[in-house]
Each structure stands twice: as C-alpha cells, then as structure tokens.
Amino acid sequence: MFRIKTLNKISPAGLSVLDQTRYSISGDVENEDGILVRSADMHDYQFPDSLRAVARAGAGTNNIPIDRCSEAGIVVFNTPGANANAVKELAVCGMLLASRKITEGNAWVKAQLAEGADLEKVVEKGKSQFVGPELSGKMLGVIGLGAIGVQVANIATKLGMTVFGYDPFLSVDAALSLSRLVHRAMDLDTIYKNCDYISIHVPQTPETKGMINEGAIHMMKGGVRILNLARGGLVNDDDMLAALESGKVAAYVTDFPNNKILQGKNVIAIPHLGASTPESEENCAVMAAQELRDYLENGNIKNSVNLPTLVQEWSGVSRLCIIHRNIPGAIANITGVLSKDGVNVENMTNKSKKDYAYTIVDVGSRVNDQVADEIRALEGVLRVRLLNH
Ligand SMILES: NC(=O)c1ccc[n+]([C@@H]2O[C@H](COP(=O)([O-])OP(=O)(O)OC[C@H]3O[C@@H](n4cnc5c(N)ncnc54)[C@H](O)[C@@H]3O)[C@@H](O)[C@H]2O)c1
Ligand SMILES: O=C(O)[C@H](O)COP(=O)(O)O
Questions:
Q1: What ipTM does this complex have?
Q2: Which of 38, 202, 228 to mutate to test the pocket of ligand 2 (most atoms within 8 A of CB)?
Q3: Which atom of ligand 2 is the closest one to the Cα of 58?
C-alpha cells in the first residue's frame, strides 16, 4: 500500500487516478511515500525517510525546498501547462480591470444604492469619472514566454494589441506555439521602454526576485499598467507603491496581495485565483497524480523540476531506480556492483539534469536487498529503489 499525504485540497478527479486498493490518501498519513501539494509552504517540512516524491498540482514550485529534496533523493514534479488557460483568461480580465475602472465603478454604484440614490439617474451623471482606455492599438509586453506567457501573448494579438515577448530561455515547444504576430524582444529594456501594459509570467527564483523594481519602473512609460499573476516576490513592493503614488504606474494588478501593497493607490488585488477554476484544478490534480503513480509504481520520471525525464519500458523482473550525483564513474560503479554479483542487465538508461542524474536498470533475475544496499553505499548515490514486476 502506498501512503500519500495531501498538504492542500486536491481535486477528487486527481485522487481517483490512484487506485484505492493500493493507495491510502489523506492529510494525516505519516511515513508517506508521496505528497500531493498546491501552494502549501513546505520549506520547514521535515521529510520522513519514506518520502520518495512530491507532486505539485500546479506550475510554481517556489513553495518547495527543491535543493533539500534533491539531496534527499526526493523527486519533485509539477504540472506544466495544466492551468495555463485559466491564468491566460485572468490576464485578459486583469488588463480590462486595469483599464476600464470596473472595480471602482462597481463600488461606486453600490455606494450610491446604500445612500438611497435613484441609480438610473446617478449612473448617467457619474459615469464620466470612470473613463478608461481600450486595449486595442496598445502595446503589451509579456515577460516569460512559457505555457502561460505564450497564451497571453497570442490572445492579446487577437484583441488588437501589438505584443512584444521576452524570454531568453524560450523552449522549442513555446516557440512553435507562439503566434507569428508576437514580436520577440531581445532585452527587457525594449519591453520597459515601449509597452503600455506589462504582464509577468516567470517563475520566482533568486534571479527573478524583485525584478520589477525602481530601476525597471524608471525605464517604463508614464501610466504603464502592470499585471503580476506570477508571484508576489517578483515585484519590489516599496518601489511599486512609490510608482503608484506618483502615477508613473497607473494600475497594478496582483494575484498575490499582501498587507503592504494593498495600501497602494490603484492596486487591483485578486486572492490568488489564477488557477482556481474547476477545469484547472482537475487538470493539475490528474497530471500530478499520474506522475506520482508512474514514479512510485514504475520508477518513471516525467515533468520533474529536479531530475531528468526518464521513462523506460519494463524489460526484466527487477528494476533498480538510482538517484545519484552527476559525477564521473557513477555508472561504472553501479554496473561494477551488478557484474560482481552476477546480475545480468537487460536494459539500462541514464539521464542527467544539472548536478543530479537518474539511472534505471532492468535486470533479468530477481535482485535482493543486498545488491541494492551495495549500490546505496556507492559514492554519490542518494536513493536506490528496488521494484519487482
Ligand atoms: N496566479 C496563479 O495562480 C498562477 C498559476 C500558474 C502559474 N503561476 C506562476 O506563473 C509562473 C509561470 O507559469 P508557466 O506555467 O508559464 O511556467 P513555464 O515554466 O511554462 O514558463 C516560465 C517561463 O519563464 C521563462 N523565464 C525564466 N526566467 C526568466 C527571465 N529571467 N526572464 C524571462 N523569462 C524567464 C522560462 O524560460 C519559461 O519559458 C509560474 O512559475 C508560477 O509562479 C501562477
Ligand atoms: O503556480 C501555480 O500553479 C499557481 O500559483 C496556482 O497555485 P494554486 O494551485 O495554489 O492555486
């Protein structure tokens, strides 16, 4: 029986991927084999020795201590693209909210009602205070052309916007999905200097943290409208507050409000609703559960953020799944143990990702724990699992 701990509410569609006769799933299980999580902060989480994988039902993994997981031989998965459509739709909504003073107008109408006004009369008299520009004909800068950024850029071209996209690490898949109407910006300055709207879609990392700061805002056009549906930490709150106060930034739409930024003028705060649609919650949960199941049952890795993709068809009776450092001699050491113990390799694949590597070895005879222990003792080996077919 595999034990799966849920650290957030996970869509039942995802949980149903895991056969209840083989998986025990709840928020209370201990010595778990796997974790299903959304945005719960795991940085202080004490990993039990039993933990083999964390599956993030969503895109951002900055709530997970990736380095600590890697060192403990724990695979971290996410679900690329599974909630991208929901965020794209919210980005369109955010651009309209930043332009058309809908939130202010709605609040004003309700206040009029509370004061007993004849709404039909005051609406026509008062509406001129809520005039706001159209999107068509304006310039949008999209920072980060991944699953979400590409969709935002593409749909904006259909709204009549001129779109510039910036992503120094653009993947082949993203490039193929990007509309030919989207212009590639070769640097951020091009986006900052020219765009009327800027939408950020990058992960929060040490490199991107605080990237929207005084220096960046200084380069921007007066009255720029900024959308942050990515992560709060990408924007320096003090610098944004100053820019909102001076009017340099006309509106800031954030999906990550905090007590400080909410005090700013023209802040449109959304309570982290980017992926909160039934469709996205299902897509993410199903993909996360499938990734977790394939790793726990077969040792296959797909969509991991700390280990390489490696999927191997079964071709033996026992399978050794070895997470190790990406160092010279690692594979020779593993095969050395197997040949010394007279174990014949049927099939073997090794892949690496930065400092870490993963090797699956299928063998023709049933291997015992002693062989696995000998591999565990090798230099640079972080985790060995022995699966039997
Ligand atoms: N508000 C929400 O509910 C919600 C939902 C999903 C994702 N997100 C956030 O949005 C982020 C992006 O999601 P995604 O699904 O598009 O991820 P993704 O991995 O598909 O795309 C991220 C893109 O950012 C690019 N990038 C990285 N560093 C960059 C930099 N310094 N400058 C420019 N581009 C850079 C990468 O090359 C990649 O193409 C996630 O990491 C997450 O933090 C928020
Ligand atoms: O990174 C993500 O996928 C989003 O921020 C969604 O987070 P959530 O799953 O907590 O809604």
A1: 0.99
A2: 38
A3: 3
Q: For residue range 46-62, list pLDDT tens digits in order.
A: 999 999 999 999 999 99
What is the mean predicted confidence (pLDDT) over 100-113? 97
Q: Alpha carbon of 309 to those of 55, 291, 360, 382: distances in Å?
A: 14, 11, 11, 17
Per residue in 309-324, pLDDT (tens digit) is 999 999 989 999 999 9
Ligand 1 atom showing the smallest separation from residue 203 Cα:
41
Q: Whose CA is nearest to atom 2 of ligand 1?
A: 274
275 CA: nearest ligand 1 atom: 3
Answer whether CATH 3.40.50.720 is correct for domain 84-269: yes
Query: Could you say which ligand is closest to the alpha carbon of residue 288?
Result: 2
Instruction: Give the ligand at the shortest distance from the Cα of 216.
Output: 1
The DSSP H or E segment spanning 36 is strand 34-37
Element (DSSP H or E) covering residue 124: helix 119-126
Superfamily of domain 307-389: ACT domain (3.30.70.260)
pLDDT, tens digit (0-9, with 9 covering 90-100), for 162-173: 999 999 999 999
Stretch 124-151: mean pLDDT, rounded? Answer: 98
Longest dimension (CA), the chain: 91
- Which two three-digit tokens encode residue 166? 């910036």
* Beta carbons within 10 angstroms of residue 357's beta carbon: 22
Tell the CATH topology of 1-82+278-302.
Rossmann fold (3.40.50)
pTM for the model stands at 0.97
Provide the 8-state DSSP code for 149. Answer: H
Q: Which residues contact 21 (CB under 8 A, 6 or more apart)?
A: none
What are the sequence ranges of the domains in the chain? 1-82+278-302, 84-269, 307-389
Instruction: Tell the burial category of 44 from Cβ atoms under 10 Å away from its Cβ (0-12, 13-18, 19+).
Output: exposed
Instruction: For the chain, give the percent of residues with pLDDT over 70.
Output: 100
CB burial string 231-256: b at 16+ within 10 A, e below: bebbbbbebbbebbeeebbbbbbbbb
